[in-house]
Amino acid sequence: MAEYLRSPPLPAPELKSSYSSGADACEIWVDSITRALGREHPSFAQRMIMEILVNNRLLNVIWKNEERIATENPNRTAEQLALLMTFENKASLEDSRNKITSSTTAYAWFYKSFGKDSLDVLCVDPAFMANDSGARCPLVAYNRFTATHITERNGIGEMSAVAAVNDLLIKFSQMVQLTSEHVSDYYLRYQRVVKALGLRNVNVNTWLDTGRKHATKFAQGLSDSYAQLKRDLANNLVATPDSISLLIIMAMQRKDPPMKPEYVKKVVFLTDAAKQPLWYEKVSSEDYAALSKAERAHRSEVNRKLAHEFGEMCCDKYLMIVTNMLGPKGYQLV
Length: 334
Hints:
There is one protein chain. By secondary structure, the protein is mostly helical. The protein has three domains: 2-151, no CATH class; 158-253; 265-334, no CATH class. The protein has 16 helices and no strands. The protein has helices at 2-6, 23-37, 44-55, 66-72, 78-113, 116-122, 126-133, 138-151, 158-173, 183-199, 211-220, 227-234, 244-253, 285-290, 293-313, 316-325. α2 runs antiparallel to α8, α3 crosses α5 (78-113) and α11 (211-220) crosses α13 (244-253). The longest helix has 36 residues, at 78-113. Mean pLDDT is 79; it is low at 1-5 and 327-334.
């Protein structure tokens, strides 16, 4: 008990759950608190919560025998194995003493992690309220959260369950990396769908029974930024890695460089079947002063007429641009 009291308390998640954010956001929230809690001090309460979040089961106290200790610690003398046996039994004894207290701590941690709108939903759930008034089991609290917020969000019954599984299977089979999505974010989204199917008793590992098959499925959804890698994998020019993690490392090394588009300047010519239009270019102030008044008026009228005809062929946006381009002296177009 003294070891338990000296362990640091579990911090509450920075972001609480929210029912109104949707099922996908709730799955992301579960993943975020799992990663954050994994970085905390490994007390018995912390290990109990991690066992619930990762494996959806309660953490049991393990009493190791001499055979198991010898298997886990080969090439040890009899005296060393005896010391390890004593140490393991002492740790198991402390866990047994702290199990009830740690279970209450884990339940309180889950309860404090739920947001206001999540508690509004959970407090009208009969199973959650029965557990809150009785055993206060953290596993039951977590399972009721996943049921009300994710798996049974759209209703209870075979029709709703089958519809939810169908939607997840379609999402999993058509999963591709978004253009603006990093490959690591794509991997997290992949894991969330696999976990969501597992919560509905659909084991994806029955179909993708090896790490290489998972890597193949993951590679098929990569974006066009990895087009060359996908072609090499499809043509067996590169061996498919044995896991998605190794595939991500290969993808980061083989990512295609971004292609910069070549901007080509285009010139628009105004043509007429009868004759080519005449456009008076801008002249210097000295040459403009040397022109007669009639010549100035003629040039200005011709340029204005051409600009008007060009604006009618274009949209209103381009018409506004051409009109603004006219200089203070009509024909003086920059």
